[in-house]
Amino acid sequence: MTALLLIILGGLCAVAYGIVTIRDVMKRDAGTARMQEIAGAIAEGAQAYLKRQYATIGIVGIVLFVALAYFLGIKVAIGFLIGAVLSGAAGFIGMNVSVRANVRTAQAATTSLGGGLDVAFKSGAVTGMLVAGLALLGVAIYYTYLTRGAGLAPASREVIDALVALGFGASLISIFARLGGGIFTKGADVGGDLVGKVEAGIPEDDPRNPATIADNVGDNVGDCAGMAADLFETYAVTVVATMVLAAIFFAGQPILEAMMLYPLAIGSACILTSIAGTYAVKLGANQSIMGALYKGLITAGVLSIGAIAIVNFALFGGFGTTFKTSTGVTFTSGGLFGCAVIGLAITALIVVITEYYTGTNFRPVKSIAQSSVTGHGTNVIQGLAISLESTALPALVIVAGIISTYALGGLFGIAIAVTAMLALAGFIVALDAFGPVTDNAGGIAEMAGLPADVRKATDALDAVGNTTKAVTKGYAIGSAGLGALVLFAAYTSDLNYFIANASDTQYRFFRGVTVDFSLSNPYVVVGLLLGGLIPFLFAGMAMTAVGRAAGAVVEEVRRQFREKPGIMKGTDRPDYGRAVDMLTRAAIKEMIVPSLLPVLSPIVLFFVIQAIAGKNEAFATVGASLLGVILTGLYVAISMTSGGGAWDNAKKYIEDGHHGGKGSDAHKAAVTGDTVGDPYKDTAGPAVNPAIKITNIIALLLLAILAHQ
Amino acid sequence: MTALLLIILGGLCAVAYGIVTIRDVMKRDAGTARMQEIAGAIAEGAQAYLKRQYATIGIVGIVLFVALAYFLGIKVAIGFLIGAVLSGAAGFIGMNVSVRANVRTAQAATTSLGGGLDVAFKSGAVTGMLVAGLALLGVAIYYTYLTRGAGLAPASREVIDALVALGFGASLISIFARLGGGIFTKGADVGGDLVGKVEAGIPEDDPRNPATIADNVGDNVGDCAGMAADLFETYAVTVVATMVLAAIFFAGQPILEAMMLYPLAIGSACILTSIAGTYAVKLGANQSIMGALYKGLITAGVLSIGAIAIVNFALFGGFGTTFKTSTGVTFTSGGLFGCAVIGLAITALIVVITEYYTGTNFRPVKSIAQSSVTGHGTNVIQGLAISLESTALPALVIVAGIISTYALGGLFGIAIAVTAMLALAGFIVALDAFGPVTDNAGGIAEMAGLPADVRKATDALDAVGNTTKAVTKGYAIGSAGLGALVLFAAYTSDLNYFIANASDTQYRFFRGVTVDFSLSNPYVVVGLLLGGLIPFLFAGMAMTAVGRAAGAVVEEVRRQFREKPGIMKGTDRPDYGRAVDMLTRAAIKEMIVPSLLPVLSPIVLFFVIQAIAGKNEAFATVGASLLGVILTGLYVAISMTSGGGAWDNAKKYIEDGHHGGKGSDAHKAAVTGDTVGDPYKDTAGPAVNPAIKITNIIALLLLAILAHQ
User: Fold this and answer.
1) What are the residues whose beta carbons fall under 8 Å from the beta carbon of A457, sequence distance 6 or more?
2) pLDDT digits (tens, 9 = 90+) for B359-379
3) Sign of CA dihedral B691, B697, B700, B704
4) CA–CA distance from B35 to each of A136, B41, B379, B443 (Å)?
5) I need a labelling partner for A544 at 20 to 30 A (CA). Which of B70, B399, B420, B639 fits?
6) Site annotated as Determinant of potassium independence: where (chains A, B) (predicted)?
7) DSSP type of residue A324
């Protein structure tokens, strides 16, 4: 119980950090009345969007809550509710801080770059810490209630099912928030640019563009709320899946509870190191913003190694203790510590690789900029080439991670590595949520007509924001892929458990089931193929949705220009609210069907194959499809997010004065590449993450429901 | 022996058809001196390219020949030689007919559309029949020699190894020809367009553009020789893999030889039906070119059902005979017939689906054309969305094919379905090789200044050529994916065979090996991930190579314009030869490294994993990597070829007068999409096919070499 209390205390530290930092941010100067007016419009739009999004998810959520309560009992349904509500809360609070910090960042940038960085990063850190803290608290407190309050055994099915449902609640928010937010933000961005930059010839963030507020709203609902929901989910499902594996592998052993608490303890310890990391973010004498952020990340990472070592001593008495799982695998507590360190190393490597592929100092981005000189076509060709190529190094890192952690700790070792990777989520989300704040700050500076040097400071912050957004996306997809592998391991372990314990009185559905997961079973091949299809089809649908939403924005802006000719002359104000409102409706409508694809496919697949070939093959097909989703999803998502980031920065590189600079033909080609990259990196690519995870978690729930038949 | 003789007779019919048709085509009027001069330059460039390509492959080939002779004996090395030489011959002869038929097509089109169609289609049919005929003859005659002449038992390892090596010979030509030809053709196309259309403002095929001959050469070396090598390979490896499966499944049974001959007999019978189909290609009263081609395809398909039924009676005495494999699976000869019919149905469905995604009459192409109205960016976004979406239906067809044929005939049933699918390769390649001939005919008409109505006829033929090229690519990737699955089945069956028969005296390497191909083995996951990476990385490298080759073309053309200002005025002739020569060197250089990726990866992977984790995991990882390549390769290749075809035809659709027609802003955006689609559909996408197959065949050879240790 002491361990649990300490874990919860760690989570509460994150919440406390959030409260203190929100107060600190809100105390800052909010700028002129004009700036506050603009920021108010952004905040209003963002809240209106999130309200409608949550209302829509709420309807789906209520149906699922009732279904879960009916099939699996009220404790499981409450787990689902906790996951959904806390994930929503993290996104909602974080975004509300974001839309208040943007204007304060712009104002702080009027005096110094360091001041702007301070406000922007702190507001991002609020979101980050809330994501990690609330996810940890949700799992830890509900687990405490279930095992202490309700007196259930830690490894009992009811506890496992309730925790899996908690992950599912987070997943549900995640898939909708990622996709809806992504469609909103890129519909606004692409549509606004098309009609503003291309047709009307006005710059980005020009207040005469009726879509400009929507564009700034989009940054918040997409990058802030969407990313928060995504990583909340990965965090929650990874911790839960690791606990499920612990419950299966160590059932009946005295070490069981310590093993189940290990992922929670790592999470809790790393919240403290992440908080410490935030205090290391200080602009040095060289004025390098990225350098300041990396200082914080490295501090958090190095401290985490020590913190996890302490956890090892506290739970296992050091590094020499040997364990044996129910499946006969042996490893030591030192091996598990090694896995955690490897998890941190994977994080570091993915950050470095992503920066290489999306940073303006390296070959990939420069090659796209160079190819822009010969036109739109060659820019896009080179961008696609880079996007395909960028999958290789992350894949090799992930493979090396799997092989080394499996050698050290078997499947449980892989799970611990992913847990450690995600333990830094608080800090990493802080880096990402920093992006929309600085982006907004630049927009507000532009719209409010602040002096040029303010805009220069916000631009510098914004450029770093682009890199941190790309880096976070690399981390998000890498961790989602590995987290999904842990979920997949949980699926096979769970399935084996049900089959082994099936009898007349329990798990009757699994009596006599034998599942052949071998690659020579054609149903495994079929599962891999159908699972592998999901990310392609899903990404295609997401791209189409952005195209449609952007088209709607174009129509709306054209209509406003036509009906109010004074807008372009600056004598009439555009109706920003209508554009926001229209996009809100479009994004919510467009997110439904693609979201259902990964949600329903494991269920439909199971029952279709069961009808064709029976239970055994249905379990094999669904299992293989989970791995198929992970496999192609990883590549599709990495290629889209890295490629999109590279396109974006190739444009920035040209704008910095290379190949003819702004306004040159190369720049025009680079703008095309950036437009293509927008839905790639901010809608389709990131939305593949929750798609990967949700198919896996649904499959786990399906097993639980079948076990109750 | 009678059966074998009849099979060989069928193959000889294809060769006879080729000879007769070549004579027929060569008799046609070759047009004016100017036309012949242009055609001569194209022919010269194409031959120069192929010579250098074969010389380069020859060096690699000699090394491999010696290595195979050393490791596996001279009979195996000779098998390799046969595969390589015949594949090269099919491509070389076919291309030489193509570069003579182009000018005759242009000349025939001066009198009638039907005349042009007749010449173009017949010359394509020569390539098609040579591909199917030579592939069949190579396998059948060498098998006859090995089992009759050399007196080896049909199921002996030496026979199997020699046949697999024959497939490998074809693979080697295929990967280089696909990639080198693809880089050449799209380097010329993209580079020529960039500097001609965009910079100098001259139309496509303008004789003043120094890259215009290279562009026409590219059509022949890419679409004709490259596609021929690709399908020769799929044909050969599928037939061989099916025979290997038959040898393993029916070893020691009286039915063994009939089962091994079954795929050959299906191939032979369908050569006859394909020839019959070519005679059904006649322009009807409605002047529909596509309709005429489909008449031929449908005729060939329907006749094939009957022909395969006859084969069933000849080999198995009807549909009711029951067989049992050594692995305990039972099925009937009627079931196998059903599998063959399903194979034909898959072909038909893939043709229909590809036409839907790439034809100008349907939603996908129209949506890309529509999105061109709002600019380059939205054109590319919608094109990418369609390319991703287009993977879904083919995947579902393939999955349905796997499930149904497995139910009817187990793994062998799947192999028979793919065999039947490929039995139509002769006719399908004819459709594809038709494309470059009409494309060239249009170019010659333009360059020779023929009257506008001739150009209109060749344009009509060319538009159909675009569709048939896209359709053939869909078929090529679908069959390659399924063929690779058969190869994968051969890998696992072969591996099991070696393990089961390992002793002190034979297959010593496999003693005590137990391979866990289950998805819960992390090395299987690692294999899937690493295999899945290959198509992404390979496609990225291919795209980059095209970009570089196109850049070199731009430089060369700019240099010529600069040094000879008379070119643009029409007073000086460009040096076409230098552009061809330069591209030849660039394409050959660029094809080497990407080609080695799929060739070396199974070998490197095996030895690296063996060093890390031992033999068992090495076999599991390599096996899983084969399936990983198939899985992502299928999706990457389908999305690229369909997406590229859709972009191409969206441009054509706009040129037909929609959305403002030629010269409008929408058209400019569509040209960008077409440029992006070029390397997608003609280089990277199609080159993934041989990459999929060659990894699988290398793995089979690796087993054979290890068995000889």
Assistant:
1) A109, A112, A113, A116
2) 888 999 999 999 999 889 999
3) negative
4) 77, 10, 37, 10
5) B399
6) 469
7) E
State the nearest Cα–Cα gap between B292 and chain A, in angstroms. 34
pLDDT of the residue at A343 = 96
Q: Which of A410, A407, A622 is nearest to A517 (CA)?
A: A622
Tell me what the pLDDT averaged over chain B comes to. Answer: 92
A615-655 and A392-423 helices cross at what angle (nearest 10)?
Answer: 100
Which residues of chain A lie closer than 8 angstroms to B546, CB-CB? 381
Low-confidence ranges of chain A (pLDDT < 50): none
Q: Does residue B36 carry a pLDDT above 80?
A: yes
C-alpha–C-alpha distance, residues A619 and A601, integer Å:
13
CB interface of B with A, residues 364-403, below 8 Å = 371, 374-378, 380-382, 384-392, 395-396, 398-399, 402-403
Instruction: Identify the three-state secondary structure at position A565.
Output: coil
Is A376 within 8 Å of B376 when comparing Cβ atoms?
Answer: yes
pLDDT digits (tens, 9 = 90+) for A316-344: 998 999 999 998 899 999 999 999 999 99
Specify whether the CB–CB gap between A684 and A162 falls below 8 A.
no
What pLDDT, on a 0 to 100 scale, did the predictor assign at position A195?
82
Using CA atoms, how far apart are residues A19 and A197, in angstroms rounded to an integer?
40
Between vectors from CA A81 to CA A78 and to CA A86, what angle results, nearest 5°? 130
Out of A625-629, B170-174, B577-581, pick the least confident. Answer: B577-581
pLDDT digits (tens, 9 = 90+) for B612-662: 999 999 999 999 999 999 999 999 999 999 999 999 999 999 998 999 998
Q: Which pTM does this prediction carry?
A: 0.95
Q: What are residue B332's phi and psi, to 5 degrees? A: -110, 165
Asked if B288 and B281 count as a contact pair (C-beta separation under 8 A), the reply is no
Nearest of A142, A139, A181, A164 to residue A54 by alpha carbon? A181
Tokens of B642: 């369909």
* 3-state DSSP of B646-676: HHHHHHHHHHCCHHHCCCCHHHHHHHHHHHH
Indicate the SS3 state at residue B548. helix
Task: Work out whether the CA dihedral B653, B656, B657, B660 comes out positive or negative.
Answer: positive
For residue B535 the two structure tokens come to 């198509």
Position B1 confidence tier, pLDDT thresholds 50, 70, 90: low
* Residue B584 backbone class (left: φ over 0; alpha: ψ -120 to 50; beta: rest): alpha
Q: How near does any CA of chain B get to the CA of A37, in Å?
A: 32
Residue B699 parent element (H or E): helix B685-707
The pLDDT of residue B94 is above 90: no
Supply the Cα-derived Rg of chain B in whole angstroms. Answer: 24
- B172/B595 Cα distance (integer angstroms): 9
B-chain residue closest to A481, CA distance: B529
In chain A, residues with a C-beta closer than 8 Å to the C-beta of B249 are none
Instruction: Count CA within 13 A, CB hemisphere, residue A660.
Output: 15
Go through B421-457 and write b for each residue having 16 or more CB atoms within 10 A of its CB, e for each that does not. Answer: bbbbbbbbbbbbbbbbbbbbbbbbbbbbebeeebbeb
pLDDT band at B283 (very low <50, low <70, confident <90, very high): confident
DSSP string, B472-531: HHHHHHHHHHHHHHHHHHHHHHHHHHHHHT--SSS-GGGTT-----BTTSHHHHHHHHHH
pLDDT value, residue A206: 83
The 8 Å CB, 24+ separation contacts for A580-584 are A580/A45, A580/A48, A580/A49, A580/A213, A580/A214, A580/A217, A581/A48, A582/A552, A582/A553, A582/A556, A583/A49, A583/A184, A583/A187, A583/A188, A583/A214, A583/A218, A583/A549, A583/A552, A583/A553, A584/A45, A584/A48, A584/A49, A584/A52, A584/A184
